[in-house]
Amino acid sequence: MVFEGGEGAGKSTQLQRLSARLTVDGVKHAVYREPGGTPVGDRIREILLHSDLPLAPTAEASLFVASRAQLVHTVVKPALVAGQHILLDRFLLSTYAYQIHGRGLPSREVRAANELATQGLVPDLTVLLRLPVSEGLDRAGKRGEADRFERADRGFHDRVAAAFDQFAEPSWQRAHPECGKIVAVDASGSLDEVEQRVQAAIAAHCPALLSRAGSRA
Ligand code: T5A
Fold this sequence. Notes:
There is one protein chain. This protein is α/β, with parallel strands linked by helices. The protein has a single domain, classed as 3-Layer(aba) Sandwich (Rossmann fold), CATH 3.40.50.300. The chain is about 60% helix and about 10% strand. It has helices at about 10-25, 40-50, 55-80, 90-100, 105-120, 135-140, 155-165, 170-175, 190-205, 205-215, and strands at about 1-5, 30-35, 85-90, 125-130, 180-185. It has a five-stranded parallel beta sheet, sandwiched between helices. Helix 2 runs antiparallel to helix 3 and helix 3 packs parallel to helix 5. It is globular, with a radius of gyration of 17 Å. The relative contact order is 0.19. It binds P1-(5'-adenosyl)P5-(5'-thymidyl)pentaphosphate (T5A). P1-(5'-adenosyl)P5-(5'-thymidyl)pentaphosphate (T5A) binds near residues 98, 143, 147, 190 and 191.
């Protein structure tokens, strides 16, 4: 299960809430974020988000893909084999939105690089949190110093948001089977309201994950 969306949409917050519910229900799971989730990925995250080193768009994309490759190979695949659910804060859809649409990199090459990293792993479901760009940047901005992407210009964030809107279309998903099912959820309103929408989306599209909770209700 993957959570995606623009800056400050509430992915981490809602992932924590879902994780807390799964813990109470005794569902074995682990939560990881991208970039990061491994020692190599965490170093890559530092370069990508918090360094002032100039990065060529192709180098940026390659670093995201490298972090993903390490996470899939050393953490996600073994965990899935062991019967654990994995909750991911961002995955390949972010590279499609930010590097292909935001930075303007060629789709074919970026898709191919991702294929190498994911080793054919397709998310059961991607919950795409949708929030107006200004609201998301506002939420993110209240937390402190902006990272490399939060500092990007408004045009960049508008292109990313437009891309995520496109990913919610069934026709786009049919043409990109490597991304799996993507369901858009309105991320405006209170934390509880968004959580209810997220749980409704999961219940509709990935009922097995919440079935233990459902059977207890
Ligand atoms: N990136 C990532 C790429 O360019 N390519 C890639 O391939 C990948 C994987 C990652 C950056 O890297 C880029 C995208 C990102 O720019 P990150 O720090 O992991 O950097 O960034 P985000 O995933 O954007 O994390 P954020 O923390 O900014 O956003 P979230 O997780 O969507 O939001 P969250 O939950 O942290 O909430 C943000 C703030 O809003 C509040 C929270 O309390 C928090 O303070 N909030 C709400 N406030 C009011 N009402 C609600 N409903 C709220 N929900 C949350």
